Amino acid sequence: MSNPILDVQDISKAFGGVVALNRVSFRLHKGEVLGVIGPNGSGKTTVVNCVTGFIRVSSGKILFRGRNITNKPAHKIADMGITRTFQIMRPYYSLPAYKNLVVPLFSPRARRTGGWGGGGKLGDRETVGIDILEDIGFERDSYIPYKLASTLSTGYLKRLELARCLSLNPEVVLCDEIFSGLSMSEIASMVPLIERLQDEGVTVIMIEHRLRELFRVADRVMVLNFGEKLTEGTPEEVMANSAVQEAYFGSEDILEGLDYA
Amino acid sequence: MNRGHEYRKERLDRGIKVRSDGLYSLMSWRELSYLTLPRLILICGLLLLPVIVPGMYWQRVISIVCIYALLALSFDFLAYHLGLVCLGGAFFLGTGGYITAVLNATFGLPPVLSIPIAAIAGGLICTLLLLPCIPLRGVYFAIVTLMYPLFFDRLIVALDVLGGTDGIMGIESFPGSQAQYYVPILLVLVCLFGMRRLVNTDMGLMFRAVRDNDQAVRASGININIYKAIGVFIASAMGCLSGACLVHIYMWAGISLLALDFSILPIAATVIGGSGTLVGPVLGCFILVPISELLRAFGTLRIVFYALILVAFIVVRSEGLMVYAQRKYHQFERWVKV
Amino acid sequence: MDIIVYGIINSVSLALMALGFALIYGISRVANFAHGALYVISGFMVWSFLNTAGLNYFFSILAAMVVVGVVGALIYQFVLIRVRGMPVSEIIASYAIGLAILEGFRWWGFKGMTYTLPVFVEGGMQVMQVSVDIHRILVVVIGGAIVGVLWLFTHYTRIGLALRGMAQDERAAMMLGIDSDRMAVVSMAFGAMLAGIAAVLLLPLGNITVDAGYNVLILAIAVCVVGGLGSWMGAVLASFLIGFAQILTEVYWGAQYQMVVALLAIILTLVLRPSGIFGRQKALEERV
């Protein structure tokens, strides 16, 4: 197999005395979708924070295309093409939705690479912003792209989060619970987006509680529990693993759990 | 207000606001004047002030008002367009003041040179000194900036440099009284409209993004500390500019340049005038400073007075006068039955 | 020897000044910048009860404590409650109140004539071959006792535990039926009283001046910032750090550097480690 695009080796993170991550390793190849599941407080978001440089790891190594990116500043990591969404959505509340995208399009990386679907050339940033929004499910001719971000609904905010990542023309996207808080139909419209990302060769890490949708898009799934990696494998393997059932669902039947998820 | 539950207040944009939004406003005098009148009144009013007000004393007060207005503008820009609440405006003012004092008194540079040099060099020095604090957020940045002027105040006294407690004397005044009145006013106008321009450029957009949500800006591969540093440079250069003018008006520079007055009054003016509007802080200064001058006979009572006004505004009308006025100008309100 | 004895005295004085500030911040997360004003008010109250109303020393102290506690509670109830949750507005509002009180005192004729409080016990004694006033010894003893009592109070009484609960997680405390605003009022009153106790203990060693208010505020912030905002034990340890640093610079460089040391401590701590030397680090909250 070719070299992994992202190689996380034995990262640990302790907050004071609390161990949030304990020697977690995983590898990702180009175009893969890795799902990360685990109970609340199992360190999923910490993985995202560590990989994207938002918090420093206590030990371990993170390699991106063979280059060591451990504990680099967040903006440098993002500049290399590793972007993330935030679990608590963080739009620029005082700006309209399309202007939210002008900010990332103003970044060095977007100007270098031309932004999402820009083909290496970045035109008028506001138009490009609206193009990306349309791509991701904002109705172009409606007033929604022009609404203030503070008045958008959760569904659109989640899309806006994803759009912010895409406008950087990323190589790796880390999605922190982009399905949570969405209705079934909203999720259904987001799933093809993830699949399209995969088709275009973008590597995706998805942290998710909605197992049904996650298992549909993920190539592999990693299970975390109390900061430790429990197992990793294809969705079917993970579902069959009794240790996972124990940790994630208690003693309940996993399929029953799936229905609730 | 007490019309029962079945009514609510509705606010609608005035027709003329909507009509004058686009390029077509150039077609009608009414719409054109709707847009330009407030600005023209502000500009003409400011320029005419030295002619209108009676006597030297009040003309001088106008100059002082402009000094404070520049400081308030710098506070407003930093706090509400960049998200850095800087409680140490006196630090900017003092740096600019001392630099121009040294340039003028020691090296004999005329005010024409010493003021711009003090603004640029002072801005650079302030930015360099604040650089380690730039990553700090909220309260931490506020406390640390509050401490800067106090620290340099005590340091100058303790080391007995820059004239120590006596200060630096023998500084040239502005050439001619007209220059003394008009230079600060013109500076305020230039800075005010310059800042309004700036916040609408791409750079201004980045500043606002940093204020709204610094983490997302980082996640977009942008180094926010660069933008924060640029913002601090712009604000501190404005503060230094005001300090340089003040020193040339007073013909003296001393540790009172670092006094808390210069930190707290601009904040009060910003809160009263309307935070984030840029015009508001300037108008706030035109309200507060003359009143505090009138109270000068009562000594420190004027500090009590504007501290209390500040508290009252924070508690009762935190939006400020300018936001209120803008709303009245652009919208009408009515009670509608629900 | 001088350095050690006076270092300890200075450190305990600093701890006393800072405890009120630390308590209020620790419980209600309000940075009470009116702290210095409360300190001066209590000194002035004791003086006026003593000299104008003619009460005896003990009762005037008691009355002053009550007054300053009420003032603290009123400041919260009428002003700070309106800007709760906006830390910077809280700072500006409380600072403006403090400024109004202090400058009001100055205007009211709190200058020229010197206002002093009598020491508790006259005379001096030898401690480790250094002669010290008995009052300074009392400061150390009572200061230590207050720290101890506070610790016991917050660990073993109902209201103390409620206060600690709120300090740790305000929302969880609210869900458990602790009224966070009432607790914040109580904490403001307590903090104001602690400022008052500090004033009563420390002011007899010098004059009551308006500038003392500003200095106390700076010193209290220095101690709390170095110790880590919100950490009470950190504040006590930090007061020893700054206390000895001040005495050392005073001995080797000169008294005018005392405040410079405190201010430098604040700036350096905030720049290098905003959560303070002994505070728990919350990397994402304080820095970008």
What layout of secondary structure does this protein have?
The complex is a heterotrimer of chains A (261), B (338) and C (288).
Chain A: E1 6-15, E2 18-28, E3 33-37, H1 44-51, E4 59-64, E5 67-68, H2 74-80, E6 82-84, H3 97-105, H4 108-113, H5 125-135, H6 154-166, E7 172-176, H7 184-199, E8 203-207, H8 211-217, E9 220-225, E10 228-233, H9 235-240, H10 242-249, H11 254-260
Parallel strand pairs in A: 3-8, 3-9, 6-7, 7-8
Antiparallel strand pairs in A: 1-2, 1-4, 4-5, 9-10
Helix pairs in contact in A: 3-5, 3-6
Chain B: E1 7-13, H1 15-19, H2 29-52, H3 55-81, H4 89-106, H5 111-130, H6 138-159, H7 177-200, H8 202-212, H9 214-219, H10 224-250, H11 261-273, H12 279-294, H13 301-316, H14 321-330, E2 331-337
Antiparallel strand pairs in B: 1-2
Helix pairs in contact in B: 2-7, 3-7, 3-10, 3-11, 3-12, 4-5, 4-6, 4-10, 4-11, 5-10, 7-8, 7-10, 8-10, 11-12, 11-13, 12-13
Chain C: H1 2-28, H2 35-51, H3 57-78, H4 87-107, E1 124-127, E2 130-133, H5 134-156, H6 158-168, H7 170-175, H8 180-202, H9 210-227, H10 232-252, H11 258-272, H12 283-286
Antiparallel strand pairs in C: 1-2
N-to-C order of helices and strands of chain A: EEEHEEHEHHHHEHEHEEHHH
Mean pLDDT of chain A: 81
Net shape of chain A: globular
Determine the most extensive contact between two protein chains. Answer: B-C, 45 and 40 residues
Order of helices and strands of chain C: HHHHEEHHHHHHHH
**Quick one: biggest sheet of chain C?**
2 strands, antiparallel
Rg over CA atoms of chain A:
18 Å
Q: Give the C-alpha Rg of chain C.
A: 19 Å
Number of helices of chain C: 12
Shape of chain C: globular
Q: Enumerate the spans of chain C where pLDDT stays under 50 for 5 or more consecutive residues.
A: 283-288
Count of alpha and pi helical runs of chain A: 11
Going across the biggest sheet of chain A, name each strand in turn.
Answer: 6-7-8-3-9-10
The helical percent of chain C reads over 70%
Structural domains of chain C: how many: 1
State the total count of DSSP E strands of chain C.
2
How far do the termini of chain A sit from each other?
Answer: 34 Å
Beta-strand level of the residues of chain C, as a percent range?
Answer: under 5%
